[in-house]
Write a structure and sequence with these properties.
Layout: H1 8-12, H2 22-38, H3 51-69, E1 85-89, E2 92-94, E3 99-101, E4 104-111, E5 118-123, H4 126-144, E6 158-159, E7 165-166, H5 169-183, H6 201-212, H7 217-224, H8 228-247
Antiparallel strand pairs: 1-4, 2-3, 4-5, 6-7
Helix pairs in contact: 2-3, 2-5, 3-4, 3-6, 6-8, 7-8
């Protein structure tokens, strides 16, 4: 069997946004970028047929769905079509209410370009985002492109001004860099990497969150489309962070409850 070699740089190049407060800051900044476009404020004004607002709304949903699905941004997510996603009711019987509670999830069907096999990825948090994006997309088309109707074969994140073809990944990467700049110094660096956050950090965040939730490594690998070897690298680094407190614990004085917190060596 060939030996699978996974370099540390492949993981470090796209640090996850799991430091405390980082993801909330990203979501807040993304919302602010949409608001700035709508009110005519912000660094760039692109108001022809509301393209600026549409693109920022698209980017907002694109980021949230990427983080909640773990899809590779430029390879899978940009090429995802409406027909590739199905809604499923996984609700359960509630004994206290005496009825079945509905719970809808989105299942994404992905065809592997190497093997040709299809895999299904059940997701949390994607169903509601897709519903909201579909609503926003319909409102935009009814205002500026009345003759254009969305079909199952259309890209979910297509460009109405270009026959629903995909936006260049360079555009998404450019607005990502702008978003990171707007986050400023409030955005905390990942403790295990000195690299900048990239769109692929959304995928890394998805994988790390699964691991932190205690999911089995085989399930994580299956959902992420990764090899076990790569997931083991993630596990090793996250375990190191979780165990740092235990490894550095020193008992002295009177035993009792002790509050723990994190800070920087640069703080007074």
């Amino acid at each position: 069997m060939p030996k699978i070699v996974t370099k540390e740089s492949e993981i470090d190049a796209n640090p996850p946004l799991i430091e405390e407060g980082n993801w909330n800051l990203v979501v807040k900044t993304l919302k602010q970028m949409i608001k700035n476009r709508k009110t005519g404020r912000g660094p760039a004004k692109y108001s022809v047929k509301g393209k600026g607002v549409y693109f920022n709304q698209l980017f907002y949903r694109w980021c949230l769905i990427c983080k909640n699905s773990g899809l590779r941004p430029n390879i899978k997510l940009n090429k995802l079509r409406w027909r590739d996603v199905k809604r499923e009711n996984v609700g359960r019987w509630s004994k206290s209410k005496g009825e079945t509670e509905d719970k809808r999830i989105a299942i994404i069907y992905i065809k592997d370009t190497k093997t040709g096999k299809q895999r299904a990825v059940p997701t949390n948090g994607v169903d509601s985002q897709l519903l909201e994006w579909r609503k926003e997309q319909k409102e935009y088309l009814s205002r500026y492109y009345q003759d254009q109707k969305i079909k199952d074969t259309d890209l979910i994140f297509g460009n109405p001004a270009n026959e629903m073809k995909q936006f260049p990944y360079s555009m998404l990467n450019t607005i990502w860099i702008r978003m990171i700049e707007l986050c400023g110094d409030e955005l905390k660096p990942y403790v295990f990497s000195d690299r900048n956050y990239t769109p692929y950090s959304l995928r890394s965040t998805f994988i790390c969150n699964l691991i932190l939730q205690g999911k089995d490594i085989y399930d994580v690998a299956k959902l992420a489309g990764h090899s076990i070897a790569v997931c083991e690298r993630y596990y090793a680094k996250l375990d190191m962070g979780r165990e740092s407190k235990e490894l550095t614990e020193i008992e002295y004085g009177i035993k009792g409850r002790r509050r723990t917190f994190k800070d920087s060596y640069l703080e007074d």
